Amino acid sequence: MGDPALSRRRFLAASAGAGLGMTTLGACGGSGSGSGTTDAEGRTVVEWWNITTTQPAKGVWADLARAFEAKNPSVRLKVVTLENEAYKAKLTALTASGKLPDVFHTWGGGVLRQQVDAGLVGDLTDRTAAWTGSLLPVSTEPYAVQGKAYGIPFDIGMVGFWYNKALFAKAGIGAPPATWSGFLDAVRRLKTSGVTPLALAGKEKWPGMYYWAYLAMRTAGASALQEASDKKDFGDAAFVDAGRRLKELVALEPFQRGFLGAGYSTPGGQAATVGNGKAAMELMGQWAPSVQNDAGQGLGGDLGFFPFPEVEGGRGARTEVFGGGGGHAVRAGAPQAALDFLEFFTSADSHRRLVAETGVVPVVKEAADALKDANLKAVSQALSGATGFQLYLDQAYAPAVGQQVNDSVAELIAGEATPEQVTEAVTRVAREQ
């Protein structure tokens, strides 16, 4: 795959261009402070970085870590849990030293490909073949590089609208909208009834990107996004049209007060605003119910789900979905104990607990019977009937390109950029890679 040192330098340059600072190196002790070594008791230390910061998932993951240690007394897991954005920055910083954690969270896509090209991530194809046959094939796609497996999924899902049925009823909306014009009408009716239509974590940027990405898929078609990345050209008129449609939504002032400074899972943030019944909808992934319950009161039976609407006249279909999942990668040279942990974490028993207690959509076939939630079943069914799939843009693309999409869409939502400027900026950064 070329010179690993050169590839690493390119990866770091791209990451720096994406605004991921290098000053956080060692902020959590860093890989190497116990990774792949032995402790005072002679146990192999496996360092595991994850982003599971909210309950109940955080507690379940901690329980599984203890259960693995109980079954493997010669191994000690050193667990580092970080919030999403902090994790991205700190992992990028560790890449500068070439000392990644033994096991670490990955979304796959372009970031993982660059880490693989830099020689930092282990090839799992043969070393996990004995037990990965239990995984759903679609769940493994984001972690494949040149036909080889560099990650093991624990979740798969899609982004869609999570809505408050009671607030929809208050506004006289009988059914979720299936078209973009119908969606805008629903936003107007919610506002007329005194309800805030949408919650958005404007401070974190990536939630706003979801709107532009889905609109681009609906106007241009799902395959167009990957083609634009391959050609390093996002100038398609359909992408500009996506921005215009997003501006049309923003002009309705649909978001909660102070949304530009709001976080996602923070108190008073996007998830809490929906979970506490203060906004009717959020566009979010399959983890939304769990985070709503953790950050707010939760909606219980009033929570519903519907796919992103079709855009009339667009080239994309409503059955083309945008999303991804979570997985784990292993650093090159990690001890066998790291793979043993992944095998334990991916076992039917462990995954059944994740599905039942944390709301992940099953990736292990034998755990499908644990999925009881009606909304998550709707997500699973939408995925099974999908006619196209697009990984999150800030993961599918090279880091600098994905970050530029997030930044430019955030500027569009804030009224600081035009639809044309969004596509021009992303094209410019893509061509610099």
What is the structure about, briefly put?
The protein has 433 residues and is an alpha/beta fold. It is built from 18 helices and 13 strands.
Radius of gyration of CA atoms, rounded to a whole number: 21 Å
Strand content: 5-15%
Secondary structural class: alpha/beta
Spatial order of strands in the largest sheet: 2-1-3-12-6
CA-based shape: globular
Helical segment tally? Answer: 18
Low-pLDDT segments? 1-34
Summed over residues and divided by their number, the pLDDT gives a mean of 89
Instruction: State the helicity in percent bands.
Output: 40-55%
Spell out the key features of this protein.
433 residues; disordered N terminus; single chain; 3-stranded mixed beta sheet; globular; alpha/beta
Protein architecture, described:
The protein is of the alpha/beta class and 433 residues long. It is 45% helix and 12% strand. It contains 18 helices and 13 strands. It has helices at residues 4-17, 57-71, 84-97, 109-117, 137-140, 165-170, 180-192, 206-220, 222-231, 237-250, 270-275, 288-295, 336-345, 348-358, 374-384, 393-396, 399-413, 419-432, and strands at residues 44-50, 75-81, 103-106, 144-145, 148-149, 152-153, 157-158, 160-164, 281-284, 303-306, 320-324, 327-330, 388-391. The strands form four sheets. The protein has a five-stranded mixed β-sheet with strand order 2-1-3-12-6. Helix 2 links the parallel strand 1 (44-50) and strand 2 (75-81). 51% of the residues are buried.
